[in-house]
Amino acid sequence: MKQDTTRRQFMQRSTEAVATVAVAAALGRAPLFANDDKPPKVRLGIIGCGGIMTHHVQGLVARREAVSLAWLCDVDPAQIEKMNALVTREFQAAQPKRTSRFEDLIEDKDLDAVIIATPHHWHAPIALAAMQAGKDVYIEKPISHVFNEGLLIIAAAKKYGRVVQQGSQMRSSPMTEKAGQLLQEGIIGKVKVARAWTAETRTIEKPLPDAMPPAGVDYDRWLGPAPQRPFNPQRFHQTWRMFADYGNGEIGDDGIHDLDMAAWGLGIDTLPKQITARGSRMLLDGHASEYPDNMNVTYEYPDGRLLIYENYPFTAYGLHGFDNGNVFYGTEGYMVFSRRGAFSVFLGPKGIPGPTEGKELRGERGYAEHMAEFLNAVRNRTPTRAAAEVAHRSCALVHLAEIAFRTRGRLDFDPVNEKFIDCDEANQLLSKKYRAPFGLPDVV
Ligand SMILES: NC(=O)c1ccc[n+]([C@@H]2O[C@H](COP(=O)([O-])OP(=O)(O)OC[C@H]3O[C@@H](n4cnc5c(N)ncnc54)[C@H](O)[C@@H]3O)[C@@H](O)[C@H]2O)c1
After folding, report:
1. What is the pLDDT of residues 368-396, one digit of tens each?
2. Looking at ligand 1, which atom is closest to the CA of residue 241?
3. Which residue's C-alpha comes closest to atom 32 of ligand 1?
4. What is the distance between the alpha carbons of residues 17 and 20, in angstroms, rounded to a whole number?
5. Counting atoms of ligand 1 from 1, which one is nearest the CA of 118?
6. φ, ψ for residue 289 (rounded to 5)?
């Protein structure tokens, strides 16, 4: 961007435009920064410089012309240091500003957008504050740690006219586009049931003793809104996933990708009316994890269609040759679809092979396209494929299953009022308590 006034005008235009773009969703996407020879760079800040953010920044190298990284934020200076080395080596010469406080980014009037890739308990507090301050947000999956946070993210995106993209990249894969076209054309008839599975083998780790946090880490901020608890290396970088104060277990880690694609394949635009969830511990018995290591969940939608989710921790060999995936069962056949980037159709009672793609490729996982779509949306004020409502409908599947598992096993849900029917205990788990001073900003 050449002049600040131009940038301000661009962002003001942006805010006004995004509120009116929902209808444009059906019109498809423009290529990145189309018809603009010298577009202003999108000024990005990144929050959480861990595993997936390293992947994102590596991906952004190809977008050097379109993006500048203005800020790096992490509560662990060692993570920032590693990211800074990567950014200045591969991405841009200018060093980004660094901070452990995400507030510094959202107070920066010149920043357009943030990518949030912290553990889940920080997603909503940061995303809501960022949107309130006029930033667009790419939020890693799941956008919410508990159900009600999804509702607030939807409300904030509307109120502040912000672009939201959940990091469910398979939505943007060219493979998904091809499979979606076939489903829309009715190749397998009407899709009645979607099955989703995750077969990720997890290492068995016995509980470790508490310890001192690594030097320089702001552990109080890492905990943030989560309850005070001594530091433990088993609940820190990467390993937080299986602890309910920070993550959502396997179903909210890898499972959310497959649930999201199941909802996509069903073409669902509502929440389920009944959830049945069970789980047990086989391999992870004795593990410090606070989740079952295998789960089996059935969601029934108001029109009677089903989504069935399973995870298998004892094998890396899931169904139909994929460790993660879906089957969409239709009235005329079925489609096997995997977020490893492949699909195959089988038709009629004999399962005669139909169109198939990506068996050898197994690479079109959508990361580059998904990030490009976000940047494009920030620039052109277009909606994204994994906008707040879409993301919430998928994240809700994680939260509703978790609640059903922790309460009665089987619960009825009112998808319109977004409350469980006749179960106060379950309704209380739709939200949670936040440790002061790290609560949610008031956005509604
Ligand atoms: N889309 C995908 O395919 C994919 C893959 C892996 C992870 N993820 C998601 O990405 C997110 C991060 O996962 P990860 O594997 O990178 O975790 P990680 O533990 O490697 O990194 C998280 C980072 O966030 C930092 N952090 C914690 N609290 C912070 C705060 N308040 N402010 C700034 N930084 C803070 C931590 O210090 C750490 O460096 C999660 O939501 C996860 O589910 C998505």
Report:
1. 999 999 999 999 999 999 999 999 999 99
2. 43
3. 74
4. 6
5. 24
6. -50, 145
**Domain 173-367+394-428: top CATH class:** alpha beta
pLDDT for the residue 18: 42
* 4-171+370-385 classified as CATH 3.40.50.1820: no
By alpha-carbon position, which residue is closest to atom 39 of ligand 1? 50
156 CA to centre of own chain: 17
- Residue whose structure tokens are 């920070």: 246
Mean pLDDT, the chain, integer: 90
Nearest alpha carbon to residue 172 among 364, 336, 358, 343: 364
Please write down the long-range contacts of 26-31, taking CB distance under 8 Å and 24 or more positions apart.
29/373, 29/376, 29/382, 30/376, 30/380, 30/382, 31/376
Atom number, ligand 1, closest to the C-alpha of residue 365: 3
pTM: 0.92
Q: Which of 46, 47, 75 to mutate to test the pocket of ligand 1 (most atoms within 8 A of CB)?
A: 75
What residue spans define the domains of the chain? 4-171+370-385, 173-367+394-428
Tell me how far the alpha carbon of residue 238 lies from the centroid of ligand 1, in angstroms: 7
